[in-house]
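Q: Got a minute? One more chain.
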Amino acid sequence: MFRWLRRLRALPSIPDAAWQGTLARYPFLNDLSDAERDSLRTLTAGFLSEKEFHGAHGFAITDEVVLAIAAQAVLPLLHLKGGLTWYDDFVGVVVHPSEVVARRTTTDMAGVVHEYEEVVAGEAMDRGPVMLSWQDVLASSITSDTGYNVVIHEFAHKIDMRSGVADGCPPLPAGFAGTANAREAQRAWLRALQSAYEVFREQTIVAERFGGAPPWLDAYGAESISEFFAVACEAYFVNRVRFAEEFPTLLALFDEFFLAGKAGQADRA
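A: Always. Here it is, folded:
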């Protein structure tokens, strides 16, 4: 279970057979360039050295499980400045064999408390662990066409939460997209994201209520702008071509953020 990774300061190589098996199972990882796959492998080893995996309800944590989750979890960090520091607010990854029924509580505008149950494939807790359904992790190997990926979804929430609140806007670097300060950068980001979210939400409502054509992305993204950000991130990383067709404005926005370190890496090559 790669426990030996955590005992060493210098990260050893992940066994080649196990790594190649992971790339083969999740084709969007294998679509990376040779240099990017090498970087992904190093980030994956670093993730495994820092995080602890726990199986729920007797689920066995194997090398296949931790490699599959880790490799997909670090994909958004591949060119993101800061690397693994984006995930330094937690240690635990809890893996369930399948989806989980979670109890929820909400209070309406009249102050009445409502309790309900929600079936979830994953959950990211602010400054806490990440929960994933292994069934849905495995499904990510065949759902690239629909832009679905539960691992990237939950770790996108982790990136979003680094700003202190899950609002669809992660902490942005100084001068992001030519802005003068952090507040201006946040406004520009949320303006672009909100516009795309409102169009998507309208498409979802028309599809569900009036039988219109369903949007390409998972309808769960219509729940809130933070969920839309996470759902959009899934598609951006696993099906860039279709994402570019559906959301050209968001593609440019996400490229500016997630590929910030790519130009510098190219300069050093």
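A: Residues 99 and 202 are 28 Å apart (CA to CA).
Q: Perfect, thanks.
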